[in-house]
Amino acid sequence: MPEMMENRTFDEIRVGDSATLTRTCTMDDVELFGVAIGGLNPTHYSPESAELFTRSGKIKAHSMWGCSLLSALFGNELPGPGTSYRSQDITFTAPIDIGDTVTVTVTVIETLPPHDVVFDCLATKQTGETVYTGRARVAAPTVKSVQPRIQLQEASLHRRHHVFEDIITSCSGLTPVTVAVCHPCDQVSLEGPVEAARLGLIAPILVGPEAKIRQVAAEFSIDIAGLRIVDCAHSHESAEKAVALCRSGEAEALMKGSLHTDEMMHEVASREKGLRTSRRISHVFIMDVPSYPRTLMISDAAINIYPTLEDKVDIVQNAISLAHVLGVDLPKVAILSAVETVYPKITSTIEAAALCKMADRGQITGGLLDGPLAFDNAINVEAAKIKKIVSPVAGRADILIVPDLEAGNMLAKQLSYLADAEAAGIVLGARVPIVLTSRADSAKARLASCAVAVRFAHARRAKNKSIAAE
After folding, report:
1. Of 67, 132, 323, 330, which has the fewest CB atoms closer than 10 Å, so is most exposed?
2. Range of the domain at 409
3. pTM of the model
4. Domain boundary among 276, 300, 324
């Protein structure tokens, strides 16, 4: 039986009647209140602003958040449903910090026919300190009401586009990584590495026609003073020389400029002069999806068109390695298909099952695999429950392994254009991490791609030192 709400009509209310409400203030409360009223005062959201502008240096709740608890108390309890505000006079004496438990008490001090009631109002913290005092006048209901307590929709906050910010911030304190920037001969491809250098993420080597690079820099006021330029005659030579810098160890990462991806990757994949290793090269999109509570990775959506089962082993392992670098110790890997059951006529379901068994046997390590999973039950817990899928991966995936490039590319673009997501791309499995960018990438996505390469290069440095020490 549902919980009931019963009001107190004007005729039932007596002087001295009182009601109490207790609520602990959380950061979500403050941010939801700010969203509701459009309040942008940074002292309510930013630790730096709070430290600068408040006495205690702590983030405070909006004063009116504490005052709004009166509205809840009047509307829910006394007088209850049917109440409307007349006036309010409040004096604030102490701020509400995040984590404070506030108790609000209202006491009837006067009834004014035909239906107004005057209340004394008091709010205190868990310490006993008074937050505010005052008086409120409301119009009490004249009609008796007993009804089920209303169930409001759950409201939650999603930090918009925080993933890339967190990745970039995680590089603070790391030494810049030398990056060979291949053919940065337009505004977008030159601005990205220059900005990354300004932030101390990378030390770029600009590999391309020097005259063209300087022309672009002058045209768009891009400061390249002090940056090394390796002069090349054309884009093909740019790819050759950029890859050679990485192969020799002079650069620890490679970044695509304004040349076509295929032209650069042809040099990367060369058996004699390229950057191949024993592992298959694959691409990973790091997705910043505002509606998803964790970083989401998609592979492969740019390199392997129709990967075989053997290819997918490396694709999965590359993505797991990246997740480790980004701080996910045991990433949850969902092997996607159109359905979540093994169906012989759908090859991707059979390969998904095989990959999971290979993980069980130690042929793939470092992550939790499950599949086949459809997209909905890979990223949504409720969808997994409806399908009765019991799995630590279902609904909580960190990595999505797609059946082929077409599916991955469409999925990434759907998230970008329909879910307001942003994508940063990186290629793994080569001797160095490779930053792949496109004209559609935002400036932050480009910086995040550089930051991922920096994290990966530093992880490789640490691994090499460990091997050398052994």
Report:
1. 330
2. 277-429
3. 0.69
4. 276
